Amino acid sequence: MSRPLDVLVLGLNYAPEPTGIAPYTTGMAGFLADAGHRVHVVTGQPHYPQWAVADGYRNERGHSWHGSVEVTRLPHPVPSRPSGRTRIAMEAAFAAQAATVGGPSPDVIVAVSPALLTVGAALRRRRPGRTAVGVVVQDLYSRAAVEAGILTGREAAATEALERWLLRGADGVVAIHESFRRSLVRLGVDAQRVATIRNWTHTGAATGDPEALRRELGWAPGEVIALHAGNMGAKQGLENVVDAARLAASRGLPVRFVLLGAGHQRDHLERLGRDLPTLQFLDPLPDGVFETALRAADVLVLNERPEIAEMCVPSKLTSYFAAGRPVVAASSAASAGTAEVLVSGGGVPVTPGEPGALLDAVLATVADETEALAMGLRGQLFARDALAERAARDAYVGWVEGLAGRAPAVEVPRPRRPDARRYGRRALGLRRVVSRPARPAGLEDAS
């Protein structure tokens, strides 16, 4: 570009959230700033995957700097036990406030979905001949509502219509997987406006000895460790893993299923698996130790509810493949997760929701040591070639710069903001910020 762009990023999730969407929104903003553009991120309070505002943060509006990226954080409700409706209320509150944050008119607004209503906030701020709007689709919202059982019937149809209308109003859309691109085109988005930019492997290097960590975590010599890392939510369907651990215990098999991470389903899962010697729960591990734990496992487990097909691409696979361990994927044959495992050659698929099939696949994988090693190596090569950060960096910079040249010359209809009467004006935080602070030289937000 001949000049730096002013880029506004609207996304509910951002650093320091360690998993899910946040690392990719944070990385994208950093890519654009490193390319010389002025980037302002409007985001929510860090709350995922623990579904509580993170320590050190207060649920209030504030400004800071994350490297060379300006960050505005907005308050919003955080449901301790998220459901479809409470999540929609949270996203509506964030979107309503995001539409009011002041500042100069940007050249490009990038909205990250979910939250879907954030796209409406972006479209409200578009100015003819000045501002282009792009959307990064990390999850297919309407498919998630159906596949996760959140919405049915008329509500599901209305959500699909809303997603279609919002995405068709954008100047460009990013799909994080080719299967997403096909789904977006089927939804009604112009294929010429959809670009595929893969999420990348964002985890760092292992910092310790895997064998030493195995001893520290109590993993016995010769014990088969099948590790699931990441969010413990409804769509993961981790009751299947608990049942596989119960089956291993009943058979006296030397297998330990490990659930590493946090999430609103963890307490429920711990109650289900109480006193099982073949099941272990681990709290999130710090950078370096987390990567070492992945390498220390014998098998890495991807588990999803059988209904999950089009809604998401499991972000954990980017770190799984980089770890060089074989993956057992208990997910739908139609899912992006299964497609990734097959195309990479980094693991084996298994029928979801069948604990016996999961247990048998784990045992069969470790029984063939040569093939297990080969799967791990193929996964690493896939991570290096298809999930490289440098490829995503170049693609996002090029995409945003291309959008800047396609700002619409005419006004477009704006979606309504969420109904304040329904959610309450105080919850939605409907007040305008009319100024933004100058960046203090050398000051960086530790988040």
Secondary structure: elements and pairs:
Layout: E1 6-10, H1 22-34, E2 38-43, E3 62-66, E4 69-73, H2 84-98, E5 108-113, H3 117-124, E6 132-137, H4 141-147, H5 153-168, E7 172-175, H6 178-187, E8 194-196, H7 210-216, E9 224-229, H8 239-251, E10 255-260, H9 266-272, E11 279-282, H10 289-296, E12 299-303, H11 316-323, E13 327-330, H12 336-344, E14 347-350, H13 355-367, H14 369-386, H15 389-404, H16 420-423, H17 425-428
Parallel strand pairs: 1-2, 1-5, 2-4, 5-6, 6-7, 7-8, 9-10, 9-12, 10-11, 12-13, 13-14
Antiparallel strand pairs: 3-4
Could you please describe the fold and organization of this structure?
By secondary structure, this protein is an alpha/beta fold. It has 17 helices and 14 strands. It has helices spanning 22-34, 84-98, 117-124, 141-147, 153-168, 178-187, 210-216, 239-251, 266-272, 289-296, 316-323, 336-344, 355-367, 369-386, 389-404, 420-423, 425-428; strands at 6-10, 38-43, 62-66, 69-73, 108-113, 132-137, 172-175, 194-196, 224-229, 255-260, 279-282, 299-303, 327-330, 347-350. Helix 1 (22-34) links the parallel strand 1 (6-10) and strand 2 (38-43). Helix 2 runs parallel beside helix 3 (117-124), helix 4 (141-147) runs antiparallel to helix 5 (153-168) and helix 8 (239-251) packs across helix 13. The chain is globular and about 70 Å long. Residues 409-447 have low confidence and may be disordered.
Q: Round the Cα radius of gyration to an integer and report it.
A: 22 Å
Q: In one word, what is the shape?
A: globular
Nearest-integer average pLDDT: 87
Strands of the widest sheet, in order across it, are 3-4-2-1-5-6-7-8
Q: What is the terminal separation in angstroms?
A: 30 Å
Class from helix and strand fractions: alpha/beta
Content of β-strand: 15-25%
Helix content: 25-40%
* Count of β-strands: 14
Q: What does the main sheet amount to?
A: 8 strands, mixed
The quaternary organization reads as single chain
Count of helical stretches: 17
